[in-house]
Amino acid sequence: MENSQIMSILNEPETEMSDNSEDIEDLNDYQVTRAELFSHSREPAITIWSNRIKFNMPCLRRFPGVTHIQLLIHPEQKRLIIRPCQPDTPDSLRWARGSEKELTNRDLLCRIFAAKVFDLMNWNSQYRYKILGKPAVYKDEILFLFKLSDFELFLGNSKKQTSYLPGEWRDYFGTPVSEHEDSYRIDLAEGYITTENV
Fold it and tell me: What's phi and psi for 86, nearest 5 deg?
């Protein structure tokens, strides 16, 4: 189908579309397919090794000009949040190198922090773990949320690597629609700790 045909279908008046469409009464039995099941090299992500972490460039591009962040952890919910901040903010971390106009990502060496995350998640220190991020809002503050339980595991070096997903994902495509929105809600007042407590 050509682009012009697709555009004409999308631009059809609503009344014509409803005549040919099927009504869906309930989405509760549907699952929102996990993004991890698709190629996501251009999606914001964090990779965690046993001694360092690194945010990819798509993650940095979500916060243009931001050189420093705070990391917030919710140990019970197993979630990590990026909170942009000023360089002089207590417990700020420089997550990028270069000037505000031309930032590049960098490794953040953090042997103790990484060990605590690996211990919390019961991860194997021989592997590295990649987690996709999602935008989040808390009281008009733009944040980025990473659910540590939704990871992709990598074996091998950077030239030849094998990726694995959690075994329990075999039986379903994703989170049920009824639970999906709630799974990304955040309240920083409930259980989050900053890196100063790590």
Answer: -80, 155
| In a domain? residue 35 | no
Rg (CA), the chain: 20
Report pTM: 0.64
Q: DSSP 3-state helix, strand, coil percentages of the chain (rounded to 5)?
A: 25, 35, 40
In this structure, is residue 24 part of a structural domain? no
Domain count, the chain: 1
For residue 21, tell me if it sits in a domain. Answer: no
The pLDDT tens digits of the residues spanning 30-88 come to: 666 665 555 556 889 999 999 999 999 999 999 999 999 999 998 998 999 999 999 99
Q: What is the pLDDT of residues 98-139, one digit of tens each?
A: 877 788 999 999 999 999 999 999 999 989 999 999 888 888
Name the 3-class secondary structure at 15. Answer: helix
Q: Which domain holds residue 131?
A: 40-197
- Would residue 4 count as lying in a domain? no
Q: 3-state DSSP call for residue 108?
A: strand
Phi and psi at residue 22, in whole multiples of 5°?
-100, 135
Residues 6 or more apart in contact with residue 142 via CB below 8 angstroms = 63, 84, 135, 136
Residues 6+ apart with CB under 8 A from 12: none
